[in-house]
Amino acid sequence: MPTDQNPGNFPWKFPGFWEKICWILTAVVFVFLLSWPIVAYDSDVWMHLTAGREIWNNGIPTTTFFSFLDPPRPWMDYHWLFQTLVYGAYDAAGYPCLVILRALLHLAFMGALLSFLFSRPLRAPSGYLAAVYLLFLFAFLPRSLVIRPHMLTYLFIVLFLHALESRKLLLGLPVLAVLWYNAHGVSYPAMFAILGAYTVEDLWDRATEKFKGKRNSLIRTERPLHSGRWWVLCFSAIFLTPYGAGLLTLPFLPLSHTQGFIQESIPARLSDFFAFHFQGSFPPRTLLNLILLLAAGSALASAAGAKRRLSHWLLLLAGALMLSRGSRLLYEFCLLALPTLRENPLWTSPVVEKPAGRLRAAALGAAVTLAAAQLWAQFQPRPAYPWSRRYLPQGLAAFLDRVPPGARVLNFPVTGAYLSWALYPRHRIASDLNIWHAFTPTDLLDIRSAFASPDGLGRMLDRYRPDFISAPLEGRHMPALLSRFPDYSLVFFDDADALYADRLKHPDIARDWSPGADPFEPESFDPVSPKNRPASPGTPPAWLSRMIEVDPHSSTTRLMAAQSLSRQGAFAAALSQTQAAAEDYPELPSARWAQGDALLALGRYRDAASELRQALRRAEESSRAPIRRSLARAHLGLGDAHAAYAELSAAVDMDAPDASPRDLFHLALLALRAGKDADARWLMRRLYGDAEAGWAEAMRKDMGRWGPQPRPPGIR
Predict the structure, then answer these.
(1) How far apart are CA 235 and CA 231, in angstroms?
(2) Mean pLDDT for each 10-residue chunk of the chain (716 residues)?
(3) Topology of 586-651 in CATH?
């Protein structure tokens, strides 16, 4: 007979082994989350902070208080409880407290999920349940890196499923419903789907009992559900919110106007579910698809066997219907599949049921290795802790903080969350895309058109005459677009946006803050142009120094300053600029590369090689060739000709018809130093056969860069 110590008649030698392993891995991921900074993968956290600050100071907002659009748009703030929590944590201890809050939310969610899967009695082998749990753990981990109310929704879904499956703690459901409505009210359809699925099953089972005289043996008849009672109580809880029945229509508002900005609002396509990739790790979408594939198999297994549960089938149907509202609801779909996955394993293998000691040890090692590899592959290198400024217009916010209050800033909607957090109440922006239901389709169309066409921008300028325009640097067409409006001139830029000022309203700013570089093409920075001459020897240009003073965390301006200083021979000063950029953005390959080049110039070859190797690990394959060239120089400085030749060989396509004669010559010299005479002979023959007259002499003059070289003997 099954017992808690030996559930489901699976004769484990060590009861609870797999469950303990899952708890250990959960603890490992929890520690990892405590060490991972707040990063702007999306900007929701700053929208929540802005609203939370307003709630703490003035109460729940009813309009878009941070926007200059006239009139203010009505705002149904269905996250208000979550925002209160988030801002309270930030107000208590800043970003480190937000890191702790995020880790605790993830731990609560995964702990509830783990308890649900391994709840007694078990109807599936523990090894199978552990595999299911690991899929959820790593599929949901990237979702847990952002601070969003979805984490509470995921927790509530699991708690509702747990309570209704076990028929325990049902009195807590109305309380959870109140919290759910107020923390993330737009997601209440998931609650209704769960309650509806078990209510329909309960009514069907009662009808079956009435007409056939028996009930479904899989349903715990000793604990009646009383489905109508819980449905009414949980539905009524919606009136314990600031908006009451007004929340009912919110999840069904059209989303088509947001799909140009928010990819996850696009409905899922059937082909998306057959995408499986492995790129050093399993991407979250691959893991989610594996969960759904496993759920489909489990559903078929239940249909073919005796474990058919109407509620489980209805949950799967509800999850599938949710996907019409956007691919972001794929996570909810996977959670609604949990009961099916738990009770209907695809297989029951003796190998799974009775693992030997060595097999258990191997499984443990494989699980830990998988966890470590997944974390390392997905989340290296780590950005600056406790929060990263990358992707955020922090410099623009710092610059505008020096401007007299009351300015209007026309912004691209994607950056609205951070700008509203940093600028309000001193200044107002146009819109925040994260509040998609407050700004009408016309609003977002007008603002999107303003950043796409002269007519659209002209209409926005005529109507509101903003003091500043914040243009995203990703829009390479923006300089040409804004050149059509000479009243606005470029005055500042950071790593994310460029700022244009109305020269009629702010003539002093337009005159004094004109940069000497194109932020949309930072690689074209020319340190020898007249505007970029240093104010004094060993210093960057005056305009660049002013920008660094305002925004010391911009990698773009720091690296421009390093380039200017290197041109002057001030390599120690250039190194300090690159070090500052690398400290702020340790994951940025360009900062590490620039630091390596500065160390090369100072003759610190070992340190240079270390920095360049880090840059190489972080860089995309298409941008690795110049880093390898610098690394070859570092190895040569260390006297390692073999390593230098290997790096330069990887950077140069020797077989390409347009291979540079200079590269071929340097490769030949390194081949000689490395004792690869055959390679050197082939390279020199190709070089002198293909090179134009005068190249050989020019390259001999360049040999000093690589040090004295022996004369290649016997090569014609």
Answers:
(1) 6
(2) 42 61 90 91 89 96 95 94 97 96 97 91 79 89 90 96 87 94 94 91 77 58 63 90 89 63 59 58 73 85 72 90 78 92 67 53 64 66 88 96 96 93 97 84 88 95 96 93 96 97 96 93 89 89 95 96 94 96 93 95 95 92 91 93 92 81 84 83 72 51 46 32
(3) 1.25.40
| CA dihedral sign, ordered 525, 531, 534, 535 | negative
pTM for the predicted model, two decimal places: 0.86
DSSP 401-417: TTSPS--EEEE-GGGHH
Distance CA(155)–CA(240), nearest Å, equals 20
d(CA 119, CA 165): 10
Q: In what order do the strands lie in the sheet with 497-502?
A: 428-429, 408-411, 468-472, 497-502, 488-493
DSSP string covering 110-161: HHHHHHHHTPSSP-S-HHHHHHHHHHHHHHHHHHHTS--THHHHHHHHHHHH
Contact 623, 589 (CB under 8 A): yes
* Cα dihedral sign, 326-48-95-473: positive
Cβ(681)–Cβ(697) under 8 Å?
Answer: no
CA nearest to 383, candidates 692, 99, 29: 99
Neighbours of 249 (CB within 10 A): 9
Q: Per-domain residue ranges for the chain? A: 22-249+267-378, 394-514, 525-576, 586-651, 652-716
Residue 546, classified by CB atoms within 10 Å of its CB into exposed (0-12), middle (13-18) or buried (19+), is: middle
Burial class of residue 512, CB neighbours in 10 A (0-12, 13-18, 19+): exposed
Q: Which of these, 419, 523, 403, 546, lies nearest to 470 by C-alpha position?
A: 419
DSSP line for 498-553: EEEEETTT-HHHHHH---SS-TTSGGG--TTSGGG-BSSTTS-BHHHHHHHHH-TT
Compute the radius of gyration of the chain from its Cα atoms.
31
User: Using H for helix, E for strand and C for coil, what is the string for 185-198?
Assistant: HHHHHHHHHHHHHH
Tokens of 601: 């110039």
